[in-house]
Fold NADP-dependent oxidoreductase.
Amino acid sequence: MKAFVVDKYKKKGALRLASLPEPELQDNDVLVRIKATAVNQLDSKVRDGEFKLILPYRPPFVLGHDLAGTVVKVGSRVRRFKVGDEVYARPRDHRVGTFAEFIAINEADAALKPSNLSMSEAASVPLVGLTAWQALVEVGKIKPGQKVFIQAGSGGVGTFAIQLAKHLGAAVATTTSAENAELARSLGADVVIDYKTQDFEKILSGYDLVLNSQDPKTLEKSLGVLEPGGRLISISGPPDPAFARELGLNLFLKLVLWLLSRGVRRKAKRLGVAYSFLFMRAEGRQLGEIARLIEQGVIRPVVDKVFPFEKTEDALAYVETGRAKGKVVIAVAN
């Protein structure tokens, strides 16, 4: 099969199109012929080695965290899927590699593709959908009437999270550029702030939850818009001690993450709010819940561009510009 391989950690020129053997199937795996995949900021970070401490992929490895495709083979213990099923998934860490024609994934990581989406649309959903679900439903436990601030409302996570938060009954504020303000409003945002000309810290107050996806300065400012008892969930770091415990990291790495997050945790405590770092995990059953919302018309994916498979590096470069509206997809096969 053809796949884009990272030969060594570096920013540019890291991907190489290679011919690899078909993945081996474990008893609980399904082999999926990938029809489409999507590009995330996470792909750039993994390629650059930013997560080497917690995700020590050993080059050469195949990049990619989203997929939609067709099951072509099942392991002996698989019960949820059969050959021919159309599925979508975010493979679990240490088993990623969707910039390829085939992948073997644990059946627990997959769900049936939303029936009203094309393969390209479905491939845009798993990583951002699970991130939004785990932040707003699982950790944030959003209730009707609460106020939620979602940063970067025209980005991949933002476009999905706005819709999910509105479905949960929250009032939603977001930041984006003036040219993308109408998109954010069409997704349900009640307050849209132009990050280029306005300071959200001066506009927002009394919020129950902030979903942070930006730089450390924005994270610090975001703590100030929360009401006492509110929570900031960050998907861009810094990782906290709870995350270190969850991963079962060694003492040295636990200390490193404790030091990295000490400043923001101190400020949060001073303000009487909570800080959490979220590193999304694979979860097929949650994707099943998300598929139902999509089929009901509650949430619609936002796809900016679709690149052909041979232009995977171009797709990654486009995402790195930060100008994409929603998700960038790669069509792997017809």
About this structure: Residues 139-275 form a domain with the Rossmann fold fold (CATH 3.40.50.720). The chain has two domains: 1-123+283-291+302-329, 139-275. The chain has a mean pLDDT of 96.
